[in-house]
Design brief:
14% strand, alpha/beta
Length: 273
Amino acid sequence: MIGFFQSLGIIFRFKPDVVFSKGGYVSLPVVLAAFLLRKPIILHESDSRMGIANRISAKFAKKVCVAFPALVKKGKTYVLTGNPLRKEILEGDKKKGYDITGFTSEKPVILIWGGSQGSRLINKLLGEDFERFVDFFQVIHITGKGKKLTANPLPLTAKSYKAFEYVGEELKHLYAITDLIVGRAGANSLFEVALLQTLNVVIPLKNADQMNNANYFADNGASLLYDPSQKLFDQCKKLCNNNYLQSFQKKALKRLSQPMAAEVIAALVLKYS
């Protein structure tokens, strides 16, 4: 209630032409205040399953922008736009990528990470087959802060292994040399992979959002969903060695990609402002 009255004051003083909301509990009082003050509301839902704040806010919105087609079936206010992404991820330089890692074009490059915070599970799966990974691949490993590998059959100074706790501006250059990505199933991560059209294996967090996102991409052939009954290395190698699977996945990624999402959303905001 306090947030609602604060939002009323802010909107009354600021006098916006339109309110754009991405959801989350802090957005709900702002949306309700905007509706009371007759301000047009545009929502955006990144995931394949709407959060509770957006489900409530959608009742007051002019348009609800979504990234997954299934949500469009909810009504005429829903518009398939995709997720707005950083276009600079397409501007990576292979030479800079090789310079950063010390790798060459002789072996495939695999990027393994668990999002910005890292993942102990994914790090563990890499560590269990570390020797085979660095023998077959050149491994870029984004570990997460304080989550570096500590015990492996080979020294962590292996020429085919380069670890980072976190990567910022250099990520686009690492993407440029990457043949296969192993990571989580956050909506933005998946749509970045789709934009890049890079082969991928997804290991979703066990929550509804990531599981639904991962299943959607896997069901459409755009991702290989990690099977815990098999070694991660075996699944990655199989994908890299199967030209048919590679072609099928790349075509599916291209089909799911929404490269103009930001422009479409911006046009809707301007339309209702």
